[in-house]
């Protein structure tokens, strides 16, 4: 059986500051390690939060989210490289980008997505610029290039006319 390895992802970059960054610590304080037999595999600290919506992308903290996604992908990849099963704890849905980037680096994969809402807003329609409401759109190539093309160029024709379903 694969070792369950907890990675803390206390980011709030994809939301307004609301306390969701405290979720990993709260779950660990409540005894998650002991109850699951998991080990701690690290904590990925988020870049500084900027409360201003980026005028070019329409998103809060797009450059910070892009950097954070790469750092989180590295942490998830390290667990996978050791043969572990990563359990990533965070309250900001934009952490999905880093998790899927770690998988994309390994080839083909699938996504089962469960959430309280669709998370498929486009930046122009999301009233607050919160990437946490756009994460599913972003990982399928819909949104600003800075967040949809992490570590590789977009396929020809993506973002114009007919949409191609593509996971990062």
Notes on the structure:
With 168 residues, the chain is of the alpha/beta class. It has one domain: Arginase, Chain A. The protein has helices at residues 23-29, 32-36, 62-81, 96-104, 135-139, 145-148; strands spanning 4-8, 39-43, 85-89. The chain has a three-stranded parallel β-sheet with strand order 2-1-3. α3 (62-81) crosses α4 (96-104). The longest helix is centred in the middle third of the chain and has 20 residues, at 62-81. The radius of gyration is 16 Å and the shape is globular. The two termini are 28 Å apart.
Short description:
By secondary structure, the protein is an alpha/beta fold. Helices cover 30% and strands 9% of the residues. The protein has a 3-stranded parallel β-sheet.
Task: Provide the helix percentage.
Answer: 25-40%
CATH H-level superfamily title: Ureohydrolase domain
Mean pLDDT: 89
SSE ordering: EHHEHEHHH
In the CATH classification, which architecture applies? Answer: 3-Layer(aba) Sandwich
- Please give the number of β-strands: 3
Quaternary state of this entry equals: single chain
| CATH class wording | Alpha Beta
**What is the CA–CA distance across the termini?**
28 Å
Determine the strand fraction and express it as a percent band: 5-15%
Structural class: alpha/beta
**Largest beta-sheet details:** 3 strands, parallel
The CATH topology is Arginase, Chain A
> Please, how many helices?
6
The strand order across the widest sheet is 2-1-3
Indicate the low-confidence ranges by residue numbers. Answer: 154-168
The number of domains is 1
Q: Which geometry do the CA atoms define?
A: globular
Radius of gyration: 16 Å
């Amino acid at each position: 059986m694969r070792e369950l390895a907890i990675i803390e992802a206390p980011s709030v970059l994809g939301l307004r500051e609301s306390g969701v960054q405290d979720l990993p610590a709260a779950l660990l304080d409540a005894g998650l390690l002991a109850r699951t037999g998991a080990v701690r595999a690290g904590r990925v600290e988020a870049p500084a939060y900027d409360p201003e919506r980026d005028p070019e992308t329409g998103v809060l903290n797009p450059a910070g989210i892009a950097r954070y996604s790469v750092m989180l992908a590295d942490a998830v990849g390290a667990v996978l490289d050791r043969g572990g099963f990563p359990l990533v704890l965070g309250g900001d849905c934009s952490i999905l980008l880093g998790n899927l980037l770690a998988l994309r680096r390994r080839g083909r994969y699938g996504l089962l997505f469960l959430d309280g809402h669709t998370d498929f807003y486009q930046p122009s329609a999301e009233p607050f610029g919160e990437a946490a409401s756009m994460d599913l759109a972003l990982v399928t190539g819909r949104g600003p290039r800075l967040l949809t093309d992490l570590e590789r160029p977009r396929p020809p024709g993506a973002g114009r006319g007919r949409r191609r379903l593509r996971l990062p």
